[in-house]
Model the fold of this input.
Amino acid sequence: MTSASGKVFLVGAGPGAADLLTLRAARLLAQADIVFHDALVHPDTLALAVNAKLVAVGKRCGRHSSTQQFINSSLVEAARRHACVVRLKGGDPLVFGRAQEEIDALTAAGLDYEVVPGVTAALGAAADLGVSLTRRGLSRSLALVTPRIGAEEAAGRGWIECARHADTLAIYMAREDATAVASALIAAGRAPSTPVTMVVNATLAGHTQAMGTTLAALGAAATEHLDGPAVILIGEVLAETVTGLGGGGLAALDARTGIQVRPCDPMDPAALALLRASDACMQALYPPESNHLIDPAALAQDQTLFLGAFDGARLVGCGAVRIMDDDGRYGEIKRMFVPPEARGRGAAKAILAMLERHLIDRGLRIARLETGIHQPEAIGLYSRLGFVERAPFGSYRPDPLSLFMEKRLDAPVP
Done:
C-alpha cells in the first residue's frame, strides 16, 4: 500500500438495532470519510457516521441495485482518495454479504483492508425469540444457507445437501421462494410437520414480527403482509416457539421488554377476566346510566381482530380493531386496556402498532378510537402516537364524557 492510500473497513451493521454494533464498528463510523452502505442499514446506525459522505450501494430483490463490480471499483477508488473508507453491510460481512469479492478487488489493487464482524440475522432472530439454535438434546448442528444465487452463478442444490443433514436451519433471502424452499426440503426428507418460525425485522424493537408455522405451511405463512427483511428458522428447537405463537399466528415481539403481542381468543378465560377489569374501569369513569360494557362475543366476529399482549404466558393487555367499510375506509379500535400493574412496559404501544399494521395491510387509511376524557394517561399515549381529536363519526351520539380520536395511517407521526 502506498502512503497516499487509505484503508477499507468491511463492517458488520448487524440485523437492525444500532446498539448491537461492536465498539470498533461505532468508532470506525465516527472516523469514516466515506461510507458505502447496504439498503437495509438502519438510519440510527448511519447517523453515527457524523463526518462521512454516505453512499447507498444496497441490493434489494426486485429493485434497482448497484452491481457488485460497481461496488468493488468504488471501494478501490475511494481508498485512493480517503484515509478511512467503511463498507457497511447488514448482519455480518462474511455471511452472505459478498465480502469475498470486495476483499479480492482490494487485494488485487494492493489496498489494505480489515473485516469488523457483526451480528448475523439468524442470531438476532434467535435472541428475539429467546431460543437456543443449538439446544442440548435437540440440536448439535446449525446450518446457515440460502437458495438465492447471483445472476452469474449456476443453479445448484448444494444448499439442500447441507440443509438435509443439519438439526437446525437458518435460511436467508428465501421469503419470496418459501413455497419452493419448503417443497425442496420435504422432498429431501424433512418432515412436513417440522416447526418453522419466520422472523421479520430482527432486533428492531417495536418492529420485530414472527410467524410460527410448519414446513408444510411455510409457503402460505410467507404471504402475510410483513414489511422488512426476513430470516426463516427451521428445526425442533422451534417447537415451543411455534406453540407459543398459536401454531401459525403472527406476533409482534419486543426482546427488550419480553412483551409479545399476538391474536388471541376474547372468550379465553384470561381474556374475559381482562375485559371484565376494563369494564370496571369504564364504569368508574362514566355515570351509571351509561352502557359502556363490552360484549366479548362481538370481539370474535369475522371483521374484528382481537390482540393480547403477553408477558410469558400471562396476558397483560388487550385491544381490538373492527374493519369498517364506509367512504372513509377506516378501522375502529376498541377496548384498548392494560391494567395498572402492567403499565410502563410498552404493551399498549405494541398493541396499537400491530392493530394499525393490520389496517394498513388491508388498504385502510384511518384508525379511529373512543376514549374517556378522564383518562389523561391514555389520551397522552394516543397523542404521542399521532392521534388527534375528531368529531364523532356518522350519526353516532357520544356520551358527553367520550373523546374521539383519529389517525391518518398514511401520514407521518408528529
